[in-house]
Input
Amino acid sequence: MVPPRLRGVEDRGGPTLAAVTALLIALLLLAVPYAAVGAQESGSANERQAPSREQVDDLVRVLDNKAQREQFLERLQSLSLAEDSLDANEPAVLSEALHLDQKVGRWLERYIGTLEGFGLQRSTLGRVALVAAAMLVVSGIVLLNNWAARVFNRKLAGPRARYHLDAGRFSSLFAVQVWAGLALAAMVFVYTLSQVYFDTLGRWLPADLLVEFAETALAVLLVLLLFATIWELCNAIMEYLGGRKGRGGNARMQTLLPLVRNGLMCVLVLFAGMVLLSEVGINVVPLLAGAGVLGIAIGFGAQTLVKDFLTGFTIIAEDLVHIGDVVTVGGRTGEVMRLTIRKIELRALDGTVHTVPFSEISVVDNLTKDYSYYMLNVGIAYREDTDAVVDCLLEVDRALREDRGFSHLILEPLEVLGVDRFGDSAVVIKARSKTRPHDKWTVGREFNRRMKYAFDERNIEIPFPHQTLYIGEDKHGRPQAAARALLDGA
Output
């Protein structure tokens, strides 16, 4: 649509002030892309050339014609939209998104205005007094910030205990608060020195450089605070959920918690590093591409490591072992002390710590999954009554279950499976006692102790290997006389 003032120009057919203004605006709009193209092709601003006379005449003819002018304006609008879309596709950094440059600049202007209001920088003594006063104020603010961080950290001791959180949970936030206070105080003090002693330090510490540095430092501190908050909140949620579970759920949380923490730490460090590199002006897209290629190369070269990861993920995802379980893996038996995505650490009964990579594990024997059985292989002499022995075993089990020290460890009465086999010198009766997962050895040792006393009271023989010496007989069936050396025990 043509404005009213341009309609008069179109009717008269002669140039007016409005037409000249439109011509100048069009020339300026054309000069921007011409200048950009010339800078990209030549690499030097001295090689740029102004539009020729013919180009200007063509532009005037375009503006005089209504249809051509509207078409020209549509092209300019499409060009502007294309430039806006290119700007939108550029990665934005945190400082630009939060307009930190404007906020930092306004704050420093107010700060310098306050310093100039005292009028002390006009003399040498006044400058020293101004710097000393600024240093005193900044030190007071730092001390107040440190005190507030300690107070808030102590105030969280009650909620940490109430919600079963770690004693140091959210401490990293207060550490960031302390370091942020120190960093900002140092920057403010340096900026004060540069402004008070501008004639000496101005060329070494220009205000624009200090403002840009403060903007970047503030963005870095915000990034650290953001990712520290995410880290602490995720850990607090996991610890709270783990505290509400029972023993089995708590063991599951203790198993998964270190793995989730390690994964979360890697993700947060990766993203924080990318954001920080973007803040300092480094393009992270080539770095990500290089990291992908490097990861593929490492994957091909470290197949055993990849196998460790995949096998470990399967074992952990299928809930085969927990922290605290007694397992047999890779020919080693012990209590699970630590699980990572690559290996499992076992502590044997003698204290030896076995580290078994997941790639060497084909079978997992969990001795304490949900519950346990203590197996009894009771050997008695061939002359003993097996039914009487079974009754004796049941009496021992009944007395053990009635004992307050062991009743809570035994889940079911003794299960006698019967006569299992006939050995060289004993009849073996097999039985088993169902106990809590980690208490079968305690119950089994006490059962053996009481069984020995019960067998002694009933004169039930627990056999041991015997050797019968046969001397032989003569042709008439009479035993032969043994040699004297043999009788003497030679």
Summary: The longest strand covers residues 372-380. The two ends are 133 Å apart (CA to CA). Confidence is low (pLDDT under 50) at residues 1-48, 85-92. The CA atoms of residues 274 and 284 lie 6 Å apart.
